[in-house]
Specification:
This protein has 471 residues and is an alpha/beta fold. The protein folds into 2 domains: 137 residues, Golgi alpha-mannosidase II (Immunoglobulin-like, Sandwich); 312 residues, Alpha-Beta Barrel (TIM Barrel). It is built from 13 helices and 24 strands. The chain has a 10-stranded mixed sheet with strand order 21-20-24-18-17-16-1-19-23-22, with helices on one face. An 8-stranded parallel barrel has the order 2-3-4-5-8-9-10-15, surrounded by 5 helices. Strands 6-7 form a two-stranded antiparallel ribbon. It is globular and about 65 Å long.
């Protein structure tokens, strides 16, 4: 999977002494938590999974376990039931829920301009699709009627928000007629979290019955579609709007990663159009994009933390692994795993944290804000505390962490730092080197502040994950 060693990193005398008072105040960046201040339950992570023969090759059970995946979002473009059944077999054992969604309305229900003209027909198609899925023993826990219905094609929307309201009613009725009451409708899967102008109509034009039918809101989150490119405030604004209009429900962020391809002064190939580099004899070995780099992985990691610090939000990784058709014909390479099933840096980073988060964990927000390039979050359960820091900067960062409000004594179980061993220039077309090392940290109890305090020295381009247990 990745080159991993267990190396105990010894603190320098300067580091140890300065922490205990020899260094001048202010030289450490403070990271402060009150563990009693909970945001809400950790609701898990989702992933968009391409349906292809690689669903078996990619060791799905291990991959889902490493990422703590609880939901998957799939789109079927062909009648490849064998692949669906293979994926279903893997996910059933893990209790993973399925979302079934659609890129485009079938041609028989639209006019020559691609606009929906037969709402009842499309609703019936959805019910028949669910019937066929269940006949093939494939679950449809949730259905999303159309992905990004607010995106214009041929200078017009495929359907209006009023038609969407009508479609919700009609689809629910068709599902209930076939005794599919357990299949939940989610949506509207808008292209961004903005609530001004036309986007707002997808919420406010739902009547009360349609609002009751919608089980969860779904939305895409990408920096290039958001003012200032910051995911946390953009999603927080949407959630605040839903609270104000008394329409708050759990939210599936059904697609996120990072749309950024320039880190520092270096521009990498866009994963939407990778560069052809290296050995041209095999498409499995020469493709390369920003998704193979540590800076990209760290940005996705930070975006994940930003989304998880919102209550009742489940982020969905944009693409779990690279699919052959995407790479060979569309020049896309968004996956966390490459065509050979090997992890990119982003997978290594995410898995180091997510596989440690215990069931029934809750999320705790930091009391102190950090400068750009640094991020942090805490997850806690009755038995464990999981703490993480990330550093996107080119320099090392010295942090002083304070965990207050534990109520009991804490002891360190394990701590790891994942860092870049090599960040290659894009002209080499080579995946960045990554290493995971065990780290020794010293935790002391500060009676004055009733806090457990410890220093962390973060390497450039790295994350730190520590697990604590109660004594």
């Amino acid at each position: 999977m990745f080159r991993s060693g267990v190396v105990v990193l010894l603190m320098t005398v300067l580091w140890s002494c300065s922490f205990f008072g020899d260094r001048k105040k202010g030289q450490y960046i403070p990271v402060q938590y009150d563990l009693s201040q909970e945001i809400g339950p950790f609701s898990g992570l989702g992933a968009n999974v391409p349906i292809s023969f690689y669903s078996r090759r990619m060791k799905v059970l291990q991959t889902f376990n490493d990422l703590g995946i609880q939901y998957i979002r799939v789109k079927r473009t062909t009648d490849n039931w064998n692949d669906l059944l293979a994926l279903r077999s893997a996910t059933t054992r893990l209790g993973i829920k399925w979302i079934y969604t659609l890129d485009a309305i079938p041609n028989s229900f639209v006019n020559e301009y691609g606009q929906l003209v037969d709402v009842p027909g499309f609703a019936k198609w959805w019910a028949e699709e669910v019937d066929e899925l269940l006949y093939q023993d494939v679950p449809a826990d949730f259905i999303e009627l159309l992905d990004r219905p607010d995106i214009a094609t041929s200078d017009s929307l495929a359907l209006t928000s009023e038609q969407y309201n009508e479609l919700i009613h009609a689809t629910r009725q068709e599902l209930d007629l076939r005794d599919f009451q357990q299949v939940a409708i989610i949506g509207p899967a808008l292209s961004g979290p903005g609530i001004a102008g036309e986007m707002e109509t997808w919420y406010v034009e739902l009547d009360q019955q349609a609002f009751d039918i919608i089980n969860r809101w779904t939305v895409h989150m990408w920096e290039d579609r958001i003012e200032n490119g910051k995911l946390f405030p953009a999603l927080a604004n949407l959630l605040e709007y839903l609270d104000q209009t008394e329409s708050r429900k759990p939210v599936f962020v059904n697609s996120y990663a990072s749309s950024e391809t320039k880190f520092g002064m270096v521009e990498y190939p866009d994963p939407d159009q990778y560069d052809i580099l290296g050995n041209l004899s095999s498409f499995e070995t020469y493709y390369y994009s920003a998704s193979f780099t540590m800076p990209y992985g760290l940005r996705v990691y930070s975006n994940t933390l930003d989304l998880l610090r919102n209550k009742e939000v489940v982020p969905f990784i944009y693409q779990l692994y690279d699919a052959p058709a995407d790479v060979k014909y569309l020049k896309k390479s968004w996956g966390l795993l490459d065509l050979n099933g090997e992890p990119k840096p982003v997978f290594t980073l995410l898995s180091l944290l997510l596989k440690k988060i215990p069931e029934n964990a809750v999320v705790v927000e930091a009391n102190s804000s950090l400068q750009n390039g640094l991020n942090t979050l805490v997850f806690k359960s009755q038995d464990q505390i999981i703490f993480t820091l990330s550093n996107e900067e080119n320099e090392s960062q010295s942090m002083q962490v304070s965990l207050a409000g534990a109520g009991r004594s804490l002891e360190i179980t394990t701590a790891f730092q994942c860092y870049a061993t090599a960040v290659y220039p894009p002209e080499l077309g080579k995946s960045d080197g990554v290493e995971v090392n065990e780290v020794e940290i010293k935790v002391r109890y500060d009676g004055a502040s009733k806090s457990h305090v410890f220093p962390v020295s973060l390497e450039p381009h790295s994350i730190f994950v520590a697990e604590f247990s109660y004594k």
